[in-house]
Amino acid sequence: MKLLRTVAFNLFTWSLVLLIAFPLIWMVLTSLKPQTELFRIPPTWLPQSVTFEHYWRLLTETPFLIYFRNSVVLATATTLFVVTLGTVGAYSLVRFRYRGRETLALLVLFTYLLPSVVLIIPLYLAMVWLGLSNTLMSLVLAHTTFALPYALWLLRSFMEGVPEDLESAALVDGATRMGAFKDIILPQLLPGIISTALFTFILSWNEYLYALVLVNTDSVRPLTTGVMSMLISAFNIEWSLLMAASVMMSVPLIVVFAFLQSYLTRGFGAGGVKG
Amino acid sequence: MGQVTLTDVRKVFGAFTALEGLNIDIAEGEFVALLGPSGCGKSTTLRMLAGLDFPTAGTISIGGRVVNDVPPGKRDIAMVFQSYALYPHMTVAENIAYPLKKRGMPKAERTAAVQKAAATLQLEPLLDRKPRQLSGGQQQRVALGRALVREPKVFLLDEPLSNLDAKLRSYMRAELIELHRRIGKTMVYVTHDQLEAMTMADRIAVMHGGRLQQFDTPAAVYDRPANRFVAGFIGTPSMNLVEGAVRDGTFVFAGQALPLPKDRFGDVPEGPAVLGLRPEDIRLEQGPLQGTLRLVENSGHEQIVTVEVPGGTRLLVRAEAGRPLSMGQSATLAVETARLHLFAPGETGARLGRDPGGAVVEMAPRQSGGAS
Amino acid sequence: MTAKAHTAPALERGYARLGVLLIAPVIVVFSLVIVYPLLAAIYLSLFQIYTPTLQGSFVGVDNYMDLLTRRAFWSSLWVTLVWTFGTLSLQIVCGVGVALLLHQNLWFRSLARSLVLFPYFLSTVVAVLVWRWLFNDLYGALNHGLMQIGLIDMPVDWLGSMPNAMIGIILVGAWKYFPFVVIAVLARLQTIPEHLYEAAKIDGAGPIARFWDVTLPQLRSVLTVIILLRAIWDFKEFDLIYLLTGGGPVTSTQTLALLVYQEAFALNEMGRAAAYSVGMMLVMLVFMIVYVRHSGREG
Questions:
Q1: 8 Å CB contact of C1 and B57
Q2: B211 pairs with which residues across the strands?
Q3: Do A168 and B74 touch (CB under 8 A)?
Q4: Per-residue model confidence as pLDDT tens digits over A97-123
């Protein structure tokens, strides 16, 4: 009786999980189907023959690799910039006393919630004025608007988790403030930094609106707008190609999920969603 | 060169005054305990000595040098934290070597110094472990090792034993006394545990509400508490404190009148006062004061008896173990008036009268309803 | 010997200076990319600006009069509220439900969790592409699946007609964002002490009573935060709706974020767009304050 209940529960939950994951499974299956099988009515649930031709075409016949490179550069640059500023800033916010510190922390929280669409018009004008429109640099700066408050907020809670006594001990042992930061705090903060870096990278990798407004040439387009423009410009939508592109686009994410998932959950704990 | 002096030190956090005009003089080689309930300012005092907090006013000097503007690392002090504050990503050896490294000591010398400190504290087998692989007692010893290794003028210890279990605590207490005897360095020890302060310190600074209440030897603090707070804080079970008044050379409370020895309390003015009696200075003996036993707590080697005297006042009395006592039983009390204390009213009312010297006096009953 | 009481010690001042120095880069970047654009948006909202040439003229509060008198802002606000409410309730219900299931002993539990969490981290572009393919009226798996089960007889036009388009975006929004609720609730569930359930069991509470009397009250605080965050994020959502329907059919799924984009970059009315964006922010602020006040009073 107990066994039966267990089996029933597992079957039910797993069907639900598979239902939730179905769009993703469908994406992978579609990308593996030959063109002819794609437009069959009714659709085949499992591919009758498996092909990698769409992936091959994507890499050789489309600017996919250029977009991919742009996205890597963009997300990496944003992450480095934001995490560096954020780590040092969080150290200051948590471990130093000066006027306006609390106000600043509140301001960070407020900007964390600001709609991109409010900032985008002035940012667009500023980038045009600075001659930065259509550069990856403009996107790095634009991504800072949401990534920096986010990273600062995360790192601030991670920093609060590093015992203050450790820093005090280092000071007594003869370290300067910056020495203690380098020798003691950074190593302690490392898991938090990794977690924040992953979140920032994913945010930047997935961003669409700024890329849509600030960049309109293929050479600097990131994956998000690049792949969509492939969809829009083509006369008939090449679904198999798009599904292959979607899979490829999610590769970094799959890697993170496979190897670094604990850092993502840790970030959630620190992100203020704890009770 | 390890004397420590605090002169008129004040510390204010926003609207809260943590320390009010603190003056403490600690001699070279002395073991001083800062004792008080939590929030009394003892930890703040220690952190200011270490340079981790900053006095709002006043000066702090260590070894004759004013250190107000000297960063912690240059004050020639070492500190042991309640949490031990071992660097989790470093091995025991690296932890102990860190202060030496920060002073630019060459690697070979460093290793030798670490070996020496490890030998003193029996840490050699643990040198390659990380702190999380150690027991609480071992971590405690590593923290001590890190403090010892650089041979500072002054050791600051912030409740170093409070995270250990009772058995280990009494063992480490003995170790620390032994260590202090051997190295003879100045030690400032913050604790809320009076047993630690009484057994280890040369002198105790009792603090309360940001003020120094008394700074004296353990014996003096126990026998001649400077005010009502110290009297109530030091000693377990604590001193019986009875509100009443001085009148006609007697202490009057709840219809009782206790004659006060003239030599000690002759010049105490009449008026409200607080009587202090340690539980061991009241005896369940033939005496005119009647009482009822309300509670008998037998701890094996002694019994602590709560006696209610007419008027409702309850007194704690120490009685020897093995004596047949039971709740509800009535008894008579005798008081060792030579060891009686009088304080002015109020939470920190000052000690009144002169120092003791007298004999056992029986408490005179007074049946008429007097003032209380 | 007494030091001057009014000046902080040199050491403390030095630390404060270092602290300010360390936060300075953040403040500079913040001012450049957030504070300046925010103020500029308010400033621009007082102008009429033609996007392609960026030439403009001062019009005072005309844009705000437009906002108040024209239907566009208000109908978009309504659409935004419907979308936010719809997708948020679905996210909360599904999120709490799935979190409860995943909290139980399940075979290959960590794999199941990964599969459920994945959509949240997925690029919106990918999510939209996949769902557009699923929604496809001719070859889409959704229509065929539903027809095979017998729920519908004819293929449904998912994104091109109302109310299907609204249902479509709400559905995809819920699918994409409910894992956030799952993660947060799971984390909280793990901290509910077991003895609370044991006490409830001893008092004779069944599984349903235990959920209402033990689990839900414990989840309350975390749900308050989740609802606030998700409501804000859903309210300002752009990518998902823009890519799925583009605001259509006509303007029936045009939320405020899309309206601002539309005015600025399709109708080339940058000043009016700025005014709309300021209006949108104010609406958000009002809702936030009301919510925080309300939940603060109850908590």
A1: no
A2: B208
A3: no
A4: 888 888 888 888 778 778 888 888 889
Chains sharing 3 or more CB pairs under 8 A with chain B: A, C
CA-based nearest residue to C104, from C209, C202, C223, C197: C197
Residues 6 or more apart in contact with residue A54 via CB below 8 angstroms: A31, A32, A240, A241, A243, A244
Structural domains of chain C ordered from first start: 10-62 (no CATH), 66-298 (1.10.3720.10)
Q: Supply φ then ψ for residue A161, to 5 degrees.
A: -80, -10
- Any residues with CB less than 8 A from the CB of C259 and at least 6 apart, and which? C72, C73, C76, C247, C276
* pLDDT tops 70 at residue A58: yes
What is the ipTM score, two decimals? 0.86
Q: Which fold has domain A65-270?
A: MetI-like fold (1.10.3720)
Is the Cβ–Cβ distance between C187 and A268 less than 8 Å?
Answer: yes
Helices and strands per DSSP (H, E), number in chain B: 9, 21
- Looking at the partner chain, which of A24, A91, A177 has a beta carbon nearest the beta carbon of C118? A24
Residues in chain A: 275
Considering only CB atoms, C5 lies closest to which of B56, B69, B70, namely B56
Write down the mean pLDDT value for chain B.
87
Contact list in B for residue A184 (CB cut-off 8 A) is: 87
Give the domains, in start order, of chain B with CATH numbers: 4-228 (3.40.50.300), 240-352 (2.40.50.140)
Nearest to C12, CA basis, from B17, B102, A156, A99:
A99
> What value, to the nearest 5°, has the Cα angle with vertex A64 and ends A58 and A67?
170
Chain centroid, CA B13 distance in Å: 25
Task: Give C105's contacts in chain A (Cβ within 8 Å).
Answer: 6
Identify the band that residue A269 occupies on the pLDDT scale cut at 50, 70 and 90.
low
Model pLDDT for residues C242-254, shown as the tens digit of each residue: 999 988 788 889 9
pLDDT tens digits, residue range B77-96? 999 999 999 999 999 999 99
**Chain-chain contact of B58 with C8 (C-beta, under 8 angstroms):** no
Q: Do B50 and A172 touch (CB under 8 A)?
A: yes
Whether residue A113 lies within 8 A of chain C, CB to CB, comes out as: yes
CB atoms within 10 A of CB A236: 5
- Residue A211: how many CB atoms within 10 A of its CB? 27
Q: Which residues of chain C from 10 to 29 reach within 8 Å of chain B, CB to CB?
A: 10-12
Cβ contact B81–A169 (<8 Å):
yes
CA–CA gap between residue C84 and residue B135 (Å, rounded):
53
Q: How many CB atoms lie within 10 A of CB B107?
A: 10
Partner-chain residue, chosen from C3, C8, C11, that has the shortest CB–CB distance to B58? C3
Contacts of C22 (CB under 8 A, 6+ apart): A88, A89, A91, A92, A96
